[in-house]
Write a structure and sequence with these properties.
Number of strands of chain A: 14
Structural class of chain A: alpha/beta
Shape of chain A: globular
Number of helices of chain A: 14
Helix content of chain A: 25-40%
Strand order of the largest sheet of chain A: 5-4-1-6-7-8-12
Radius of gyration of chain A: 19 Å
CATH class of the domain at 2-187 and 228-256 in chain A: Alpha Beta
Oligomer: homodimer
CATH architecture of the domain at 2-187 and 228-256 in chain A: 3-Layer(aba) Sandwich
Distance between the termini of chain A: 51 Å
Strand content of chain A: 15-25%
CATH topology of the domain at 2-187 and 228-256 in chain A: Rossmann fold
CATH superfamily of the domain at 2-187 and 228-256 in chain A: NAD(P)-binding Rossmann-like Domain
Chain lengths: 338, 338
Amino acid sequence: MNIVITGGAGFLGVRLARELLKKQTLALAGGMPQAISRLTLVDRAAPPADLVADSRVRVMEGDLNALLEAGTPAVVAEGTDLVFHLAAAVSGECEADFDLGMRSNLDATRALLQACRGLQAKPTLVFASSLAVFGNSPEQPLPEVVEDTTLPTPQNSYGIQKFIGEQLVADYARKGFIRGRNVRLMTVSVRPGKPNGAASSFLSGMIREPLAGVRAVCPVAPETPVALSSPGHTIDGLIRAAEASDSDWGARTAINLPALKTTAGEMAAALARVAGKDVAALIDWQPDPVIARIVTSWPAQIHAARAERLGLLPEKNFDDIIRAYLSENPYAASQPAG
Amino acid sequence: MNIVITGGAGFLGVRLARELLKKQTLALAGGMPQAISRLTLVDRAAPPADLVADSRVRVMEGDLNALLEAGTPAVVAEGTDLVFHLAAAVSGECEADFDLGMRSNLDATRALLQACRGLQAKPTLVFASSLAVFGNSPEQPLPEVVEDTTLPTPQNSYGIQKFIGEQLVADYARKGFIRGRNVRLMTVSVRPGKPNGAASSFLSGMIREPLAGVRAVCPVAPETPVALSSPGHTIDGLIRAAEASDSDWGARTAINLPALKTTAGEMAAALARVAGKDVAALIDWQPDPVIARIVTSWPAQIHAARAERLGLLPEKNFDDIIRAYLSENPYAASQPAG
């Protein structure tokens, strides 16, 4: 089985790649498990050394639009069975640079779909859409609980571009050009590594940095509700989307992944419980109206009915998410002095 | 006031142009009425002679994408106050030729929005979306009554492209590049003239042709429910969208125009009542599974709450629609022999 991951050197791409290589096989769309023989990682950056060293891994480094335009070597080569399309410009970038977002998120998705359409055998494409398709506004308040069938009303360009991507994936699937799987990812926390340009970046930073003994800013009020999913659950959702049969999957519209409903203040309280009050005291509560406006426009409570039917459930509490982060990133916590 | 109509030589474009020239003024977005000094009609075909002869009318003949790419003369010239974007490839064409639909409906809409964005003063853009964004499918049945907030699940490429257009218009409006008005047109009946490539073409033809003494095919079963609007009400909806203030208009998502709920069989019965049984007997009931599949995937009952708040109401019965057609098209009915 040949698999392509766009954004394959990003945080989720790398984690997905490692998980797939560890699994060794994948049962595509309800079929028999098949050995994963080739994993192509497409990204502007190079993936980590452990992935590059795996004989099954092929690396394509470059801008996705440019690689697709060049055509050779093919991003989606003949014989590709499965594409995870994770590559995207993040929400903050798209809001700051409209044209960049349109190119990175809309044009690239369309070009990738065209490449898939050109294959002799129909590939499966898992599209990583986002919670950001849902936006709250005074003219159109979000319902308290967001369902799979709730009308998305995106309040930023990133959300619009992801929602357009869902429509393209749905129609390419309907036309039989691909097998399509639209999956809306929730805000992922705790992400390891460094802050990125996403408006949601602080939702990892406010946990990750204090654990490493570094001060971190929380730019929203403690009572701000947020819907979160751990990295592990997010990867489970992407793989389940690829493995679900067409009938188990159902409609071509997107499914919401499950999310834990919590608040910035509850996250800080969980950090204090798991790592101590001194660690939680490293959070600086400094409201940023630009970030707060974006984050508070996202839904806080998700009812992921379709995902639940596929066996995907939300985390039970944020304490467990912090503990999972610490066990997966043993060097993340600062060592006691002396 | 300078107004542009894309698709300005089409049936709705011509009717809209005539209505605007007759009105002479327009109160844009709740402002004071202003004289309509310039009306630019953009279309692949030439508009009728009465429009060409009006000193306020400027004609731009050609493919919308090609005209926008050429840039000079500008489709949307500096000083444009209002654009009605009606130009589109119709549903049948888009289903037969996927790439044509993407180019005509998605690329052209995006290029037009970019042209609007380039103006010094923000124009208003009224986007003619469609009932076809709603699609029924076994995996995702439509609710019995479709509301403004119902999640669109298009079942054909035309519907997907229109729904993507709505998203683009909403985001260009949110960014302040345009004032946006997304309006979903219902199936228009009775259209004068000739059949076109739309899957819904028969919903006019089965009335228009028999009235002219010509046999016509109805390709769906008599009990097939349909939601219709007269040409007059449709034009009223487009003009109301331009004239509504931002606060009266509300959310950037699309509004459904009102529609009369009827069936193909009831339409034939109305034709018999208005024009006689002999006329209605000119309808040939010949099921066409391809057309029937598209038409039965559209919703039959619309609750147009936002349009109603703007004072737009559906027709009361189909008999009135036929009578309006006959009064507006005095030569449409065949003359008695002798």
